[in-house]
Structures are given as C-alpha cells and as structure tokens.
Amino acid sequence: MTAASTTATTMLQATQADVLQEIQSNFLLNSSIWVNIALAGVVILLFVAMGRDIESPRAKLIWVATMLVPLVSISSYAGLASGLTVGFLQMPPGHALAGQEVLSPWGRYLTWTFSTPMILLALGLLADTDIASLFTAITMDIGMCVTGLAAALITSSHLLRWVFYGISCAFFVAVLYVLLVQWPADAEAAGTSEIFGTLKILTVVLWLGYPILWALGSEGVALLSVGVTSWGYSGLDILAKYVFAFLLLRWVAANEGTVSGSGMSIGSGGAAPADD
Ligand code: RET
After folding, report:
1. Residue range 34-61: mean pLDDT, rounded
2. Could you identify which of 40, 65, 164, 269 might form a hypothetical disulfide with 70, taking C-beta atoms 3.0 to 4.6 angstroms apart as the criterion?
3. Which residue puts its alpha carbon closest to atom 7 of ligand 1?
4. The organism sits in which domain of life (predicted)?
C-alpha cells in the first residue's frame, strides 16, 4: 500500500469528530455554513411576521411553501456544520484529485431535494398552473437533485460521475422548460405575470450557477477549492432562497386578492368547464 493510499484509507475511516475538526479548521468553509445558519434564522422570523395576516388558502399555501425554504435551509446547514452530512471521498482515477481524500459536503445535494420543490411549488401556485405541470416540474427537479447527489458521491468511476452529471442536467432542462415556457402563460392568465417574470429570471439565472459551480469545484474539474465552492453555493443560496422568498412573500402579502382563489385547477389543465 502506498503512503498516499494509506492516508486516503485513514481519512475515509474518519469519524464525525475528525470531519468536524476539518470543517472548523477551514475558515472559508466554516464561515460559508454559519453565515447561512444565522441568515436563515433571521429570515424565518421575518417571514412569520410577514405572513401573519394572510388568510386565503392559495396565498397561505404559497406562504407555507416559502417558509419551508429557510426551514429546510437551517436544518441543511446545521447538518453540514456538525459534520453529519459531510464526508471524505477518495476520487477515482481520471479525476483531477485522483487518489486524494476530498472533503465532500454532500448534504447540500441531499437537502436540495426538499428545498427546491418548495420553491417550485410556490412559483407554480403563483402562476396558478395545473397539477400536471406542477407535478412535472417538481418530479424533474427531485430527479435533478438525486442524480446530482449520485454524481457527487460516485467514487468507482470518473466517467460515471459525469454521466450522472449529464442525467441531472437533462432533468434540469425539463425544469427550465416548464419555468420558461409553460408557467409564464399561466401567470399571464392569473394576473401575476409581473412578479412571476421577475422571480422566473432570478430563479433561472441563479439556478444555472449551481451546475457551473459543481463542474468547476472539487466534485468536477477541481479548479476551485472546497471552501471557495462552498461560499459560491452559499452566495447563490442567499439570493436564490432568501432574496427570492422575500420578494415573493412581500408581493403576496400586498396583493393577496390576486392570489385569493383556491388555486390549482386540478386535472383541468386550466380549461373552463364545457357547459360554462
Ligand atoms: C447539480 C449538479 C448536477 C447538474 C445540475 C445541478 C443543479 C443544481 C441546482 C440546484 C439548485 C439549488 C437550489 C437550492 C436552494 O435551496 C446538482 C449542482 C443541473 C439547479 C436553488
């Protein structure tokens, strides 16, 4: 066994306490986590206050979905801060860090499976889309997150890491299609096109940053360090979650009448009944 692989084996058997120590000794990584925990805490309190007078069912559902974004976020970042959802991975041959033990905050990818569907649920409700379209966006999004997690965790083959990355991107294209093509028309009909348009652009532009960071970071071609990548994700999270959610809730609180229907033209595809 070579010295390098011995080190790798040692780190791969690292306890949670070892991982925690590694996180705490990396200032960039540690600060990128704690800043988000603090922000999520403030944002949760702010959103409770902003939504306290909302009464109509659809507006309430948008509010709960939006609230869940920082709630999932604080749990996600607490998992990272404790070392529970961070581990060492030995990268396969062909990877820029082949044979080295790389610190992987894989919990991020896991928890996106819960937070991103909430963002899409809130946007779909805002556009008053139909249930099939909402189901499509959310399931494609979950597919994107789970296959992205697989891409990050695979250590058996460099090629398969990128195959899963490609599959995740394909799911992402489906989400983008719904956001850019289907929902704008629904939002127009629902009278929410202005705010939907702003949030759609914010979402599409910021979400595109995630696969770029993955590819440039230590999971991909390793041009960026673990700490810089983590700050990249944290920065995107601040904008894609907290700023997004704040703009949405502020609008819903001020325009509750526009979203006061029960929402979700379930199964009708938005069409009016034949005998109306
Ligand atoms: C990965 C890597 C594989 C390819 C693609 C990705 C896309 C991730 C996205 C994440 C968005 C996360 C948000 C989180 C908020 O809580 C998994 C990075 C396409 C779009 C908005």
Report:
1. 94
2. 40
3. 211
4. Archaea
276 vs 267: CA distance, rounded Å: 17
d(CA 150, CA 161): 8
Closest CA to 265 of 137, 135, 139, 128: 128
Q: Atom 19 in ligand 1: which residue has the minimum CA distance? A: 169
In this prediction the pTM is 0.91
* CB atoms near residue 112 (< 10 Å): 24
Rg of the chain taking only CA atoms, in angstroms: 21
Q: Is the dihedral of CA 127, 129, 133, 136 positive or negative?
A: positive
Tell me the per-residue pLDDT of 224-257, one tens digit each, with 9 for 90 and over. Answer: 999 999 999 999 999 999 999 999 999 999 999 8
Dist. CA 61 → ligand 1 center (Å): 24
Ligand 1: distance of its center to the CA of 21 in Å? 27
Q: Do the beta carbons of residue 128 and residue 189 sit within 8 Å?
A: yes
